[in-house]
Amino acid sequence: QQRLCIARALATDPEVLLNMLELDLDMRKPDDRRVGQLQDLLNVAASRLARQGITLRDTLDDAHLQVSLAAWLYRRRNQIAGPAMPESLRLDINDRLIGEKAGGLDG
Question: Which of 15, 2, 60, 61 is closest to 42 using CA atoms?
């Protein structure tokens, strides 16, 4: 129970989210400019999820969802059409949205 509480607290820590994103993108010690860009992408990802009707909660699943979307946004940053959203990410977003609309807590 205590570990779960700690994990939930860490999942919403901006520094932890940033570290998760750096790991996802295989970045080692990014410079300050890049760190700022990654923080902006995490905010954009949270905003996009909110616009779709998803309220991010203090869960590891939601932290992973936000980081995954931010990583995808980073990977397609210089492309006009860009690669399509990975099916697994699209399904995660859809599942989370359905769970939220149905009133489930662990969507």
Answer: 15
φ/ψ bin of 86: left (φ > 0), alpha (ψ from -120 to 50), beta (otherwise) = beta
Enter the DSSP assignment of 81. Answer: S
The answer to whether the CB of 41 falls within 8 A of the CB of 21 is yes
- Give the separation between CA 20 and CA 97, rounded to whole angstroms: 22
Q: Helices (DSSP H) in 1-107: which residue ranges?
A: 2-11, 14-24, 32-51, 60-75, 87-101
Instruction: Write down the pTM of the prediction.
Output: 0.82
Convert the pLDDT of each residue in 65-98 to its tens digit.
999 999 999 988 777 776 788 899 999 999 999 9
Query: What's at 27, amino acid-wise?
Result: M
Determine the average pLDDT of the residues in 1-10: 56
Is 62 in contact with 96 (CB distance < 8 Å)? yes
DSSP string across 85-96 = PPHHHHHHHHHH
CA proximity to 27, closest of 14, 9, 39:
39
